Amino acid sequence: MSEQQTNASVVPPPIILDQQTRRWLPAIIAAIIAFAMFIILGATPPIRAAGMAMAVVGMALALHPMGTGLAFVGGLALAFSPSFWIQTGGLESLDPLEVGIGLGVALALAGIVYVVRKHPQDVTLATILFIALFALFFLLGVGTPRSLRLTTLLAAWFVFLLTEGTLLSNPRPDVMQPEKLGIQHTWGLLLLLGLGVMNNPLFTLFVPATALGLFLTRARLPIWYWLGLVLVAIMGAYSITITYIAPEWWSFPSEQTPNVVGHVPFLIASAWRDPERWLRLIDLIVGQFTPIGLALGILGLARLSRWHPPTGVVTMVAYGSYAFFGLIYFGDDAPVLLLPLLMIQIYWMTYAAYTFASWLGGAFHITPRLSLWGATAAFSLLPLFMLARIMGFL
Fold first, then answer.
1. H-assigned helices in 41-122
2. How far separated are the first and last CA of the chain, in Å rounded?
3. How far, in Å, CA of 45 to CA of 28, rounded?
4. What is the pLDDT of residues 1-58, one digit of tens each?
5. If you average pLDDT over residues 190-206, what whole number do you get?
6. pTM of the full predicted structure?
7. How far apart, in whole angstroms, are the C-alpha atoms of residue 11 and residue 16?
8. Residue 267: beta bridge partners?
9. 227 by DSSP, 3-state: which?
10. Would you give the DSSP letter of residue 141?
11. Angle, vertex CA 273, rays to CA 268 and CA 277, nearest 5
12. What angle do CA 211, 212, 217 make, to 5 degrees?
């Protein structure tokens, strides 16, 4: 084999490297900034801050189709949202098992770097496997029941795979040709879903959107894949029943429920008919992203459903599942349990900013690049406001 052939087999094609750089760089930069803020402002132990930063990476990657700038801003919007920020703080742990897990994470990261260097097109698959191994080690080693941080990490990457799969398989005809889903979009979804349900049964709320998304992507999957999905759904539904449903509360009239039971972590079946419950859910979203964020989410869903119907429908089903849970759930931890809903809200908000960029280009006859950066600059006011609120300036 000649020296030229040897080098060609080792050095990845420049085009692939450039694509991966544009895709991953804004997510990594957003995660680094968030990691620093978690430690400096949130007094968070580095290991915990690193796990939270990994969730920011997943959120930013989900937003990458809307542009590098908007992906960066959207990732920070998740990092500085109150429900996400509440995970900061805590005491540093030097438990030998956790230290061992940390060393394993470091080795896995080294493996990802190797994959990026040798096979950049497989970096997403390698990262999903890394997150799955981390989640499995965490569940088997630390064993914290219904870990919020692990749920958040898995949910962010799950939203990324779910939305990317529908966008790739059902793109707009004037943008690109449909692409075949990779193994990370099919088996990766089932893997993260199973781990998510093992950690917290509420991850089962993603099952309807997952089944619909796989159907809309026209993925050819063996029958035992669907049997696995059904098994995960049954296990999750059973766990939800024994964890969040109590007979004395399930049939209790929600209009007679006093405010003092806000701490009771149970479901009340008729609560979704109570207008006050809808107002509470809206207040939660406004409290996270301001009224402008609520309006942007509505606009983003409307435009996404028109320009990318499969992605719009799938995200709406996932959002609706968590919203319905939020309506009938009475518990003080509802804001953090609904973090997957807030992630989808950020997705819609970012798409609304992307729509604003398209409008700018058409209305003022400016280049798409300039209009996109203009929309990014306007959208960046949201995480800046949220950060100022965390720092106590507002």
1. 46-62, 68-79, 82-85, 96-118
2. 65
3. 19
4. 444 443 333 444 455 556 777 888 899 999 999 999 999 999 988 878 888 999 999 9
5. 94
6. 0.89
7. 11
8. 329
9. helix
10. I
11. 75
12. 100
> How far is 40 from 172, CA to CA, in rounded Å?
43
- On the CB side of 342, CA atoms within 13 Å amount to 28
**What DSSP string runs through 311-349?**
HHHHHHHHHHHHHHHHHHEE-TTHHHHTHHHHHHHHHHH
pLDDT band at residue 348 using 50, 70 and 90 as cut-offs: very high
Torsion of CA 26, 66, 350, 272, to 10 degrees: -120
Instruction: Please state which of the ranges 82-96, 147-161, 285-299 shows the lowest mean pLDDT.
Output: 82-96
What is the Cα–Cα distance from 26 to 8, expressed in whole angstroms? Answer: 28
In this structure, the number of other CB atoms found within 10 A of the CB of residue 237 comes to 14
Under 8 Å between Cβ of 25 and 75: no
d(CA 113, CA 115): 5
Q: How far apart are CA 171 and CA 177, in angstroms?
A: 7
Asked if the model's pLDDT at residue 392 lies above 70, the reply is yes
String of DSSP letters for 297-309:
HHHHHHHHHHHSH
Q: Please tell me whether residue 330 adopts helix, strand or coil conformation.
A: strand
Q: ∠ CA 141-144-150 to the nearest 5 degrees?
A: 90
Q: Please report, rounded to a whole number, the percentage of residues in the chain having pLDDT higher than 70.
A: 82
pLDDT of residue 35: 93
Rounded distance, CA 42 to CA 262, Å?
Answer: 27
Name the CA radius of gyration of the chain, rounded. Answer: 21
Q: In this structure, is the dihedral angle defined by the CA atoms of residues 234, 237, 239 and 242, taken in order, positive or negative?
A: negative
3-state helix, strand, coil in the chain (%, to 5): 80, 0, 20
In total, the chain counts a number of residues equal to 394
